[in-house]
């Protein structure tokens, strides 16, 4: 049996594990919300500890919490920032509205550690109280959204390098594959020639633009409602607290942050989380599209496009010998599906705010942070184990470039659309190429055929000669 201690909160006494740094309110939440078995993201823990340290420093500077207590709170919060007490954050990610349970988990861990620093015992709060001192001048209603925004900014710092690296990998493949001619496809039908490198260069641009959109959306996270307390009026705070606390948080976190223009707005609206989640969704949609293209282009090897080869990473079938599947492209798609689903949950949570508070913030925090984490991890392995190792089947690509019926498009300025369409019909029915038929019918001179029907020259704009 685990030894316990009795702690008292506003509802009465509750049993808490004797050596736990969390307290009664956290223990009640563990009992109340046995939902997923998942606990808070490490960056959310780190971010809320940064907020607590910034607030304690502000309270010390403003004289609202005495220096001895404040110093102990600051030391304890710093230890949480460093990850020393992550195991003490025991509340499920699905919990009471607004994140009260997670917030009190942080207050209790920091208070108990601060008491220990000052020579007190766990659970007695003789020196530092979770509510009266760690939470002085604060409320869940301003602390949790502040921590969520800060955690998202910190998490995005892990995603940006992966996005930049993936965009660069596609761009590099674009240069490598630039000389390789192939047939374009629209509506999954033959289209005019394109260079394989042009396709891959465009993938790099798509990822880069998604990254730019995400960075722009993230700017909305930098305006914080810290200091608004319960309903955004700043009740029980020093007039200078919010400016001082945010300034401290800038120094502690290394992030560019500023006090919200209107504290009520910062508490009522969580549109910034919708913006970021939406940008993650848009990125995921691009990843789905690109991963599907890679699967199509590598399909086969004998009965598919077989224009590119993806790295062989593992056997692809328990029954078909020698089969190898595009596993990294499949992974990228499945993770992206999850991100799209997460965005739906965030959207529903963002619109569910009422009056002075949106209580659905825990769902926003969990889903956005999960999306960022799984995307960052996936982009890394997708790049390293797939994109960087892609090779081209030049012979197959050239065959498609020379045999596409859409070569007839280049004849439009010379023989007209209608005659070119008739040539296409004959090519399809007879199996003869457009070039062969153009020669047979003396539609063009040999010099014109070489010039006009050269697939390479169709891949860039040019004036009619």
Indicate the topology.
Blueprint: E1 4-9, E2 12-17, H1 24-32, H2 42-62, H3 67-81, H4 100-117, H5 130-134, H6 140-176, E3 181-186, E4 189-195, H7 196-218, E5 223-224, H8 241-253, E6 258-259, H9 263-268, H10 271-297, E7 308-309, H11 327-351, H12 361-385, E8 391-392, H13 394-403, H14 412-415, H15 417-430, H16 434-440, H17 446-452
Parallel strand pairs: 5-6
Antiparallel strand pairs: 1-2, 3-4, 7-8
Helix pairs in contact: 1-4, 2-3, 2-4, 2-6, 2-8, 3-4, 6-7, 6-12, 7-10, 10-11, 10-12, 11-12
Q: So what's the oligomer here? A: single chain
In CATH's first tier, which class of the largest domain applies?
Mainly Alpha
At CATH level 2, the architecture of the largest domain is Up-down Bundle
Profile the largest sheet.
Answer: 2 strands, antiparallel
**Number of spatially distinct domains:** 3
The strand order across the widest sheet is: 1-2
Judging from the principal axes of the Cα atoms, what is the shape? elongated
Number of helices: 17
Descriptive notes:
The structure is a single chain. With 465 residues, the chain is mostly helical. It folds into three domains: 133 residues, Fumarase C, Chain B, domain 1 (Orthogonal Bundle), CATH 1.10.275.10; 214 residues, Fumarase C, Chain A, domain 2, CATH 1.20.200; 56 residues, Ribonucleotide Reductase Protein R1, domain 1 (Orthogonal Bundle), CATH 1.10.40. 57% of the residues lie in helices and 7% in strands. The protein has 17 helices and eight strands. The protein has a two-stranded antiparallel ribbon. Helix 1 packs antiparallel against helix 4. The relative contact order is 0.10. The model has no long low-confidence stretch (mean pLDDT 96).
């Amino acid at each position: 049996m685990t030894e316990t201690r009795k702690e008292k909160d506003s509802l009465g006494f509750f049993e808490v594990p004797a050596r736990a740094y969390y307290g009664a309110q956290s223990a009640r939440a563990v009992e109340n919300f046995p939902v997923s078995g998942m606990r808070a993201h490490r960056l959310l823990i780190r971010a809320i500890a940064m907020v607590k340290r910034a607030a304690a420093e502000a309270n010390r500077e403003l004289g609202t919490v005495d220096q001895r207590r404040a110093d102990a709170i600051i030391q304890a919060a710093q230890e949480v920032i460093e990850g020393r007490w992550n195991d003490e954050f025991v509340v499920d990610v699905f919990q009471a509205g607004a994140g009260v349970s997670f917030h009190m988990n942080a207050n209790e861990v920091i208070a108990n550690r601060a008491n220990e620093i000052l020579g007190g015992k766990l659970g007695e709060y003789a020196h530092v109280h979770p509510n009266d001192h760690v939470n002085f001048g604060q409320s869940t209603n301003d602390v949790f959204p502040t921590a969520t925004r800060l955690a998202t900014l910190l998490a995005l710092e892990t995603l940006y390098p992966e996005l930049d690296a993936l965009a660069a990998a596609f761009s590099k493949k674009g240069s490598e594959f630039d000389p390789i001619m192939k047939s374009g496809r629209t509506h999954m039908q033959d289209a005019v020639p394109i260079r394989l490198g042009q396709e891959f260069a465009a993938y790099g641009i798509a990822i880069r633009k998604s990254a730019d959109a995400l960075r722009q959306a993230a700017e909305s996270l930098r305006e914080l409602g810290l200091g608004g307390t319960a309903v955004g009026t700043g009740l029980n705070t020093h007039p200078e607290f919010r400016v001082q606390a945010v300034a401290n948080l800038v120094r502690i976190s290394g992030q560019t942050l500023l006090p919200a223009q209107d504290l009520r707005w910062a508490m009522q609206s969580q549109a910034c989380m919708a913006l970021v989640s939406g940008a993650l969704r848009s990125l995921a949609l691009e990843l789905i599209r690109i991963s599907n293209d890679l699967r199509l282009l590598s399909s086969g090897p004998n009965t598919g496009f077989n224009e590119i080869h993806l790295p062989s990473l593992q056997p692809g079938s328990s029954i078909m010998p020698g089969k190898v599947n595009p596993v990294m492209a499949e992974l990228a798609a499945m993770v992206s599906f999850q991100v799209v689903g997460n965005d739906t949950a965030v959207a529903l949570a963002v619109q569910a705010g009422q009056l002075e508070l949106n209580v659905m913030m825990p769902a926003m925090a969990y889903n956005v942070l999960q999306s960022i984490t799984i995307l960052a991890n996936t982009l890394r392995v997708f790049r390293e184990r797939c994109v960087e190792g892609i090779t081209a089947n030049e012979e197959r690509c050239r065959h498609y470039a020379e045999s596409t019926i859409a070569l007839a498009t280049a004849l439009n300025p010379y023989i007209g659309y209608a005659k070119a369409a008739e040539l296409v019909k004959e090519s399809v029915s007879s199996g003869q190429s457009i070039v062969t038929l153009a020669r047979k019918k003396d539609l063009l001179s040999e010099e014109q055929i070489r010039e006009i029907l050269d697939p390479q020259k169709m891949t860039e704009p040019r004036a009619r000669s």
